[in-house]
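REQUEST ID: PR-0412
SUBMITTED BY: lab tech R.K.
PRIORITY: routine
TASK: structure prediction, single protein chain
INPUT:
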Amino acid sequence: MSLLYLTREDVAGLLPSISDQLDLVEETYRAVGAGRVELPPKPGIHPRPDSFIHAMPAYLQDEDVAALKWVAGYPANKERGLPYITGLIVLNDAETGVPTAIMDGAEITAARTAAASGVCIRRFAPEDWSRAAVLGAGEQGRFHAHVLRKLNPEVAIQAWDPHAERIGSLGDRVEAATGPREAVAEADVVVTAGPIVEEPDSPLTQDWLAERSLGLPIDFDFYFSADAVTAAELFLVDDVGQFDYYRSLGHFQGWPEPDASVGEALSRDGSPSRVVCCNLGIGALDAAFAAHVLVAAREQGIGTELPL
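STATUS: complete
OUTPUT:
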Protein backbone atom coordinates (compact mmCIF):
# COMPACT_ATOMS: atom_id res chain seq x y z
CA MET A 1 0.00 0.00 0.00
CA SER A 2 1.14 3.55 -0.67
CA LEU A 3 -0.04 7.10 -0.13
CA LEU A 4 0.09 9.71 -2.88
CA TYR A 5 1.46 13.07 -1.71
CA LEU A 6 0.65 16.25 -3.65
CA THR A 7 2.26 19.65 -3.03
CA ARG A 8 0.44 22.96 -3.39
CA GLU A 9 1.99 23.42 -6.81
CA ASP A 10 0.74 19.98 -7.81
CA VAL A 11 -2.76 20.75 -6.56
CA ALA A 12 -2.90 24.14 -8.29
CA GLY A 13 -2.07 22.53 -11.62
CA LEU A 14 -4.70 19.82 -11.21
CA LEU A 15 -7.71 21.92 -10.21
CA PRO A 16 -10.50 22.21 -12.78
CA SER A 17 -11.34 25.50 -14.53
CA ILE A 18 -13.22 28.13 -12.56
CA SER A 19 -16.43 27.33 -14.47
CA ASP A 20 -16.09 23.66 -13.55
CA GLN A 21 -15.28 24.60 -9.96
CA LEU A 22 -18.56 26.54 -9.75
CA ASP A 23 -20.49 23.55 -11.08
CA LEU A 24 -18.73 21.23 -8.63
CA VAL A 25 -19.61 23.51 -5.72
CA GLU A 26 -23.24 23.77 -6.80
CA GLU A 27 -23.59 20.01 -7.15
CA THR A 28 -22.07 19.53 -3.71
CA TYR A 29 -24.24 22.22 -2.10
CA ARG A 30 -27.35 20.62 -3.56
CA ALA A 31 -26.26 17.23 -2.21
CA VAL A 32 -25.72 18.77 1.24
CA GLY A 33 -29.15 20.40 1.08
CA ALA A 34 -30.71 17.07 0.13
CA GLY A 35 -29.04 15.23 3.03
CA ARG A 36 -26.70 13.13 0.91
CA VAL A 37 -23.53 14.30 2.70
CA GLU A 38 -22.32 13.32 6.16
CA LEU A 39 -20.97 16.58 7.53
CA PRO A 40 -20.40 16.80 11.29
CA PRO A 41 -19.68 20.24 12.76
CA LYS A 42 -15.95 20.82 12.64
CA PRO A 43 -14.16 20.56 16.00
CA GLY A 44 -11.30 22.91 16.63
CA ILE A 45 -8.56 23.99 18.96
CA HIS A 46 -7.34 27.53 19.56
CA PRO A 47 -3.67 27.55 20.67
CA ARG A 48 -3.27 31.33 20.33
CA PRO A 49 -5.67 34.33 20.47
CA ASP A 50 -7.68 34.66 17.24
CA SER A 51 -6.08 31.49 15.86
CA PHE A 52 -7.69 28.15 15.08
CA ILE A 53 -6.84 24.63 13.94
CA HIS A 54 -9.91 22.76 12.70
CA ALA A 55 -10.69 19.21 11.65
CA MET A 56 -13.20 19.08 8.78
CA PRO A 57 -14.41 15.56 7.93
CA ALA A 58 -16.94 14.80 5.20
CA TYR A 59 -18.44 11.84 3.39
CA LEU A 60 -20.03 12.37 -0.05
CA GLN A 61 -22.53 9.58 -0.59
CA ASP A 62 -23.05 10.15 -4.32
CA GLU A 63 -19.33 9.92 -5.12
CA ASP A 64 -18.40 7.57 -2.23
CA VAL A 65 -15.67 10.00 -1.15
CA ALA A 66 -14.33 10.19 2.42
CA ALA A 67 -11.94 12.99 3.35
CA LEU A 68 -10.63 15.12 6.19
CA LYS A 69 -9.11 18.59 6.08
CA TRP A 70 -6.84 19.67 8.96
CA VAL A 71 -6.61 23.44 8.54
CA ALA A 72 -5.07 26.26 10.56
CA GLY A 73 -5.71 30.01 10.47
CA TYR A 74 -3.23 32.35 12.19
CA PRO A 75 -3.79 36.08 11.48
CA ALA A 76 -0.40 36.99 12.98
CA ASN A 77 1.42 34.88 10.42
CA LYS A 78 1.67 37.74 7.93
CA GLU A 79 4.11 39.46 10.30
CA ARG A 80 6.18 36.26 10.26
CA GLY A 81 6.18 35.99 6.48
CA LEU A 82 3.94 32.92 6.69
CA PRO A 83 0.51 32.23 5.14
CA TYR A 84 -2.59 32.98 7.18
CA ILE A 85 -4.16 29.64 6.13
CA THR A 86 -2.25 26.35 6.01
CA GLY A 87 -3.46 22.79 6.01
CA LEU A 88 -3.58 19.27 4.64
CA ILE A 89 -6.33 17.10 3.17
CA VAL A 90 -6.37 13.33 3.64
CA LEU A 91 -8.47 11.08 1.41
CA ASN A 92 -9.44 7.57 2.53
CA ASP A 93 -10.77 4.67 0.53
CA ALA A 94 -14.43 4.57 1.59
CA GLU A 95 -14.59 0.78 1.26
CA THR A 96 -11.60 -0.09 3.44
CA GLY A 97 -10.78 3.13 5.32
CA VAL A 98 -7.19 2.95 4.10
CA PRO A 99 -5.64 6.40 3.45
CA THR A 100 -5.01 6.88 -0.27
CA ALA A 101 -3.70 10.44 -0.60
CA ILE A 102 -2.51 13.44 1.36
CA MET A 103 -2.31 16.84 -0.28
CA ASP A 104 -1.80 20.51 0.45
CA GLY A 105 -5.06 22.07 1.60
CA ALA A 106 -4.33 25.78 1.17
CA GLU A 107 -4.89 25.91 -2.60
CA ILE A 108 -8.16 23.98 -2.36
CA THR A 109 -9.32 26.14 0.56
CA ALA A 110 -8.72 29.32 -1.43
CA ALA A 111 -10.26 27.99 -4.65
CA ARG A 112 -13.35 26.35 -3.18
CA THR A 113 -14.13 29.37 -0.96
CA ALA A 114 -14.12 31.73 -3.93
CA ALA A 115 -16.06 29.21 -6.03
CA ALA A 116 -18.69 28.95 -3.27
CA SER A 117 -19.11 32.72 -3.43
CA GLY A 118 -19.30 32.43 -7.21
CA VAL A 119 -22.23 30.04 -6.98
CA CYS A 120 -24.03 32.50 -4.72
CA ILE A 121 -23.27 35.36 -7.12
CA ARG A 122 -24.55 33.30 -10.04
CA ARG A 123 -27.85 32.65 -8.27
CA PHE A 124 -28.48 35.55 -5.86
CA ALA A 125 -26.66 38.68 -7.13
CA PRO A 126 -28.89 41.46 -8.53
CA GLU A 127 -29.71 41.06 -12.19
CA ASP A 128 -27.17 42.82 -14.43
CA TRP A 129 -24.78 43.32 -11.52
CA SER A 130 -21.68 45.26 -12.52
CA ARG A 131 -20.03 46.65 -9.38
CA ALA A 132 -18.30 44.69 -6.63
CA ALA A 133 -16.52 45.55 -3.41
CA VAL A 134 -13.69 43.46 -1.99
CA LEU A 135 -12.59 44.24 1.57
CA GLY A 136 -9.28 42.50 2.10
CA ALA A 137 -6.63 42.00 -0.58
CA GLY A 138 -5.03 38.84 0.74
CA GLU A 139 -5.28 35.43 -0.84
CA GLN A 140 -9.06 35.24 -0.61
CA GLY A 141 -9.37 38.71 -2.09
CA ARG A 142 -7.26 37.63 -5.07
CA PHE A 143 -9.17 34.41 -5.65
CA HIS A 144 -12.51 36.23 -5.38
CA ALA A 145 -11.39 38.89 -7.86
CA HIS A 146 -10.62 36.09 -10.36
CA VAL A 147 -14.09 34.59 -9.89
CA LEU A 148 -15.81 37.99 -10.16
CA ARG A 149 -14.08 38.64 -13.48
CA LYS A 150 -14.91 35.15 -14.72
CA LEU A 151 -18.60 35.73 -14.02
CA ASN A 152 -18.56 39.29 -15.40
CA PRO A 153 -15.46 40.30 -17.38
CA GLU A 154 -16.55 43.95 -17.24
CA VAL A 155 -17.05 44.13 -13.47
CA ALA A 156 -15.72 47.23 -11.71
CA ILE A 157 -14.13 46.35 -8.38
CA GLN A 158 -13.61 48.78 -5.50
CA ALA A 159 -11.18 47.38 -2.96
CA TRP A 160 -9.87 48.31 0.43
CA ASP A 161 -7.15 46.79 2.58
CA PRO A 162 -5.31 48.26 5.58
CA HIS A 163 -2.14 47.38 3.65
CA ALA A 164 -2.85 49.45 0.54
CA GLU A 165 0.12 48.05 -1.38
CA ARG A 166 -1.64 44.68 -1.59
CA ILE A 167 -4.55 45.97 -3.68
CA GLY A 168 -2.52 45.81 -6.89
CA SER A 169 -2.44 42.01 -6.53
CA LEU A 170 -6.19 41.86 -7.25
CA GLY A 171 -5.60 42.42 -10.97
CA ASP A 172 -7.24 44.59 -13.62
CA ARG A 173 -10.07 47.10 -13.20
CA VAL A 174 -9.63 47.41 -9.45
CA GLU A 175 -9.85 50.85 -7.87
CA ALA A 176 -8.43 51.44 -4.41
CA ALA A 177 -10.93 53.00 -2.00
CA THR A 178 -9.97 55.31 0.85
CA GLY A 179 -11.92 53.20 3.33
CA PRO A 180 -14.20 50.18 3.59
CA ARG A 181 -17.43 52.18 3.46
CA GLU A 182 -16.39 53.95 0.27
CA ALA A 183 -15.60 50.58 -1.30
CA VAL A 184 -19.01 49.17 -0.42
CA ALA A 185 -21.04 52.18 -1.56
CA GLU A 186 -23.22 51.29 -4.59
CA ALA A 187 -21.72 47.80 -4.86
CA ASP A 188 -24.00 45.05 -6.15
CA VAL A 189 -21.78 42.35 -4.63
CA VAL A 190 -19.84 42.82 -1.38
CA VAL A 191 -17.08 40.36 -0.46
CA THR A 192 -15.51 40.79 2.97
CA ALA A 193 -12.26 38.88 3.35
CA GLY A 194 -10.75 40.08 6.59
CA PRO A 195 -9.35 37.82 9.32
CA ILE A 196 -11.58 35.71 11.56
CA VAL A 197 -11.16 37.02 15.11
CA GLU A 198 -12.83 36.39 18.44
CA GLU A 199 -14.07 39.93 19.20
CA PRO A 200 -14.60 41.83 15.94
CA ASP A 201 -15.79 45.43 15.69
CA SER A 202 -18.17 44.53 12.80
CA PRO A 203 -18.51 48.06 11.33
CA LEU A 204 -20.59 47.24 8.23
CA THR A 205 -24.19 48.24 8.95
CA GLN A 206 -27.23 48.11 6.69
CA ASP A 207 -26.88 51.76 5.62
CA TRP A 208 -23.57 50.88 3.92
CA LEU A 209 -25.35 48.57 1.48
CA ALA A 210 -27.23 49.25 -1.74
CA GLU A 211 -30.95 48.48 -1.81
CA ARG A 212 -30.26 45.52 -4.10
CA SER A 213 -27.10 43.70 -3.09
CA LEU A 214 -25.51 40.38 -2.24
CA GLY A 215 -23.28 40.21 0.82
CA LEU A 216 -20.61 37.51 1.10
CA PRO A 217 -18.97 37.67 4.55
CA ILE A 218 -16.35 34.93 4.23
CA ASP A 219 -14.65 36.36 7.33
CA PHE A 220 -17.59 35.48 9.59
CA ASP A 221 -18.58 38.63 11.53
CA PHE A 222 -15.37 40.63 11.09
CA TYR A 223 -17.05 43.25 8.86
CA PHE A 224 -20.76 42.42 8.67
CA SER A 225 -22.76 43.49 11.71
CA ALA A 226 -25.92 41.83 13.00
CA ASP A 227 -27.77 44.95 11.82
CA ALA A 228 -26.71 44.40 8.19
CA VAL A 229 -27.64 40.72 8.25
CA THR A 230 -31.00 41.30 9.93
CA ALA A 231 -31.88 43.78 7.17
CA ALA A 232 -31.39 41.13 4.48
CA GLU A 233 -34.49 39.74 2.82
CA LEU A 234 -32.76 36.35 2.65
CA PHE A 235 -30.02 35.11 4.97
CA LEU A 236 -28.28 31.85 4.08
CA VAL A 237 -25.38 29.84 5.46
CA ASP A 238 -23.62 26.88 3.89
CA ASP A 239 -24.32 24.69 6.92
CA VAL A 240 -26.84 25.56 9.64
CA GLY A 241 -25.35 23.14 12.17
CA GLN A 242 -21.91 24.69 11.85
CA PHE A 243 -23.38 28.17 12.11
CA ASP A 244 -25.03 27.22 15.40
CA TYR A 245 -21.76 25.66 16.60
CA TYR A 246 -19.80 28.84 15.90
CA ARG A 247 -22.47 30.92 17.57
CA SER A 248 -22.00 28.77 20.69
CA LEU A 249 -18.32 29.77 20.60
CA GLY A 250 -19.21 33.48 20.63
CA HIS A 251 -19.34 34.39 16.93
CA PHE A 252 -22.39 35.93 15.22
CA GLN A 253 -23.82 37.54 18.35
CA GLY A 254 -27.20 39.13 17.56
CA TRP A 255 -27.39 37.60 14.08
CA PRO A 256 -30.78 36.21 13.04
CA GLU A 257 -31.47 32.54 12.42
CA PRO A 258 -30.62 31.51 8.85
CA ASP A 259 -33.58 31.19 6.51
CA ALA A 260 -32.03 28.07 4.95
CA SER A 261 -28.78 26.57 3.78
CA VAL A 262 -27.36 27.68 0.44
CA GLY A 263 -27.97 24.19 -0.95
CA GLU A 264 -31.64 24.33 -0.04
CA ALA A 265 -32.11 27.86 -1.38
CA LEU A 266 -30.53 27.09 -4.75
CA SER A 267 -33.61 25.07 -5.64
CA ARG A 268 -36.09 27.81 -4.71
CA ASP A 269 -37.63 30.43 -6.97
CA GLY A 270 -37.54 34.17 -6.41
CA SER A 271 -35.14 37.09 -6.57
CA PRO A 272 -34.79 38.69 -3.13
CA SER A 273 -33.53 42.27 -3.23
CA ARG A 274 -30.97 42.00 -0.44
CA VAL A 275 -29.25 38.67 0.30
CA VAL A 276 -26.46 37.65 2.67
CA CYS A 277 -24.72 34.30 2.14
CA CYS A 278 -22.35 33.44 4.98
CA ASN A 279 -20.27 30.54 3.73
CA LEU A 280 -18.37 29.28 6.75
CA GLY A 281 -16.43 26.70 4.76
CA ILE A 282 -17.59 23.09 4.72
CA GLY A 283 -15.50 19.95 4.43
CA ALA A 284 -17.82 18.63 1.73
CA LEU A 285 -16.34 21.12 -0.75
CA ASP A 286 -12.79 20.22 0.25
CA ALA A 287 -13.65 16.54 -0.24
CA ALA A 288 -15.18 17.16 -3.67
CA PHE A 289 -12.22 19.23 -4.89
CA ALA A 290 -9.66 16.83 -3.42
CA ALA A 291 -11.34 13.85 -5.09
CA HIS A 292 -11.18 15.62 -8.46
CA VAL A 293 -7.51 16.47 -7.90
CA LEU A 294 -6.67 12.88 -6.97
CA VAL A 295 -8.30 11.47 -10.11
CA ALA A 296 -6.42 13.99 -12.28
CA ALA A 297 -3.13 13.21 -10.49
CA ARG A 298 -3.54 9.49 -11.09
CA GLU A 299 -4.37 10.06 -14.76
CA GLN A 300 -1.38 12.36 -15.29
CA GLY A 301 1.13 10.53 -13.11
CA ILE A 302 1.68 13.52 -10.82
CA GLY A 303 2.69 13.30 -7.15
CA THR A 304 5.02 11.35 -4.90
CA GLU A 305 4.17 7.84 -3.72
CA LEU A 306 4.91 7.33 -0.02
CA PRO A 307 4.92 3.91 1.66
CA LEU A 308 2.39 3.30 4.39
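NOTES: The chain has a mean pLDDT of 95.
REVIEWED BY: pending
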